[in-house]
Prior knowledge:
The chain is mostly helical and 225 residues long. Helix content is 47%, strand content 4%. It has nine helices and two strands. The protein has helices at 2-5, 13-26, 44-62, 68-78, 82-101, 107-116, 137-146, 171-176, 194-204; strands at residues 127-130, 152-155. It has a two-stranded parallel sheet. Helix 7 (137-146) links the parallel strand 1 (127-130) and strand 2. Helix 2 packs across helix 3 (44-62). The radius of gyration is 25 Å and the shape is extended.
Amino acid sequence: LQRHLKDQPIANEACVTAAWVHTLQAIDPGQFQAVFLSLPEQSPGWQQGMAQRLAQLRDELGEEGLSIQEAAKLAAEAGHETERWRQLGRLEGLYLQTLQTHQLKDRNLARREAADQYTAPASTGRILLIATPDAQALPLKAIEKAAVETPVEVWTYGPKELFDEWGRPLQEIWNQRPLDFESWGARMRAFGESKALTRQVATSTQGQTPESILIGLADSELTHT
Length: 225
């Protein structure tokens, strides 16, 4: 997607912040009380900080292929902070108008357009999506568009019936799938504290080649032991 944007007038981070600051300077905060729970003092410091927070919100939603206005529609359907999201959507519209006035394009919208229109380069023989259980929305949309003309192979680490067509785990199946430790030849031991566990791992792996060992940690505290 980034290659498709290289020749477009995309607003950089400084321009995005400046556009948000301009938007905040032009509004009456009293008309956006669901967003600004207490009426702010319109100081440069507040405008700068709020501009960065709003830009970050748009970037986070953009990773999922959403704008604030689209998120507002989802919030309305779910009955979750409907008015707050509606007012955020109004602010987003004013921000986009500011960019358009200066003949700049918003990066998130441009990435969405690129994904919607994506075709693989002519030199691409096939696309491999390998072990990607949680692909980002826009790259996945681009691959889906490319699949019309370019073969796409999805590789998963496990039986294909456990995944959807794009290699994402099917949650209902995984939630109900039994763990058949006996048929896997697995041996389980319980330890009362983490140091005993790490000592056992160190002892049992002595003399083994590194590539023959796989360690999975479900407890983040064990990484510091």
